[in-house]
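Problem: given the chain below (144 residues), write out its structure.
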Amino acid sequence: MPATQTSYGPAAAAYEGMIASAELATAISRNAEDAAGIGFGKAAFQGTAEAGIRAAGSVFRGVTLVDHNARPANGDAYARGDSVPVLIRGVVWITVVNGVAAGAPAYVTGSGGFTANASGTTAIPNASFDSSASAGGLAKLRLK
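Solution.
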């Protein structure tokens, strides 16, 4: 039988939507409403339906968690109608749109980008960054 994999690389230290801490976390289930779906580790905003979420909006609901059992045709995203785990309390890895420092309060743009910049953004209630990162880098976001 031929080998199915012949080269190996190191596992990623972290990735978007990965729980970043073994401490207690709380997640809720919501349904993806966007036609394009919603990615892992992305801001989830209140959708049209009571249990719906969208990738952009004005009412922040939490951060989508990664699901290794999600349909592979979706890549790193949940499709419209998928049940999505949304972290509302805990620490999760996310990508930041600009540099952040550990301890800084967290904000989200209307399009779902995470930032420490208060200008033109919405404060995420009781949220802060647990690690520092440069623009486009991974950072730990703590939701309380």
